[in-house]
Write a structure and sequence with these properties.
globular; 2 domains; mainly alpha
Length: 304
Amino acid sequence: MLPGRPAHSGGKMQTIKGAYKAAIAAILIVPSGAGAQTAPNFGPEEFGMSRRELVQAIERGEELIARCMQEQGFQYIAADYNTVHAGMKADKSIPGLSEEEFINKYGFGVSTMYTGQAPQLTSGYSPARIGLGEQNVQIFKSLSPADQAAYNRALWGENTEASFAVALETENLSQAGGCTRKAIEQVFKPEQLRSSYYNPQNAFINNDPRMKAALRKFAAEMKRDGFDYSHPDDVEPDIRTRLAALTSNGTIPVDQMTPEQRAGLRTLQDYERRVAAKTFELQEKLLTPVEEQVQQELFARKVQ
């Protein structure tokens, strides 16, 4: 995600996020004798956490989810860090495709991957399913359809897209519901649960004039192509909002859609591919170079 935008936006491109982590990691491994340096007071992982803090947050969160689900009368096995992290890494990722290839083919993977099925029942792309772990998927599959619906309401509330893994990866805890919400309320700070929260990594450079200028260029070029977005992080949430309106919050399976709904879905899928490709193109051209320059100055320059 780029600096200066709420972390909930979820439209961040992984190349920028990866570069950001690498820049911070480079500082953290500089030997003390190599020159004095003031390191930022946050880590390179989601929500500005260190790797250790992220591991602890995931493991504690999963323990609390399992306890809550048991209180609701359902079996849920707390997933370990590696399982949840695999779900996080699966966002906008398919083996054999680069990020750019994924975006050109599937956009953000929102409407283009929509089935209307519970994540546990999907056989293809599903970061939520991966983050649950195979044991929990099999537990879900053993239930009757009515119990499956009740299970996911207990686990996620009304938004089955807001799994723990996906919420962490997109840095958007505000949409989580059910036992997942109850768990994260005990693990994360209140301000991190708000839709207005943004990562301290991003806030650290969000006022740089060069980034503000680059974002103005981004908005102007998007508008020339018929897209009304002032920031790349606004795009994916808009697709999710449109899909939710079309599918009654993801409750209508594709095979049960009316002809009008299917036509609307195809239109949205085409729009998603086009706007995602343009967003990625402009990020690479306008924003990533500025981001990397600011990173180098803020994080990689030794104090003389």
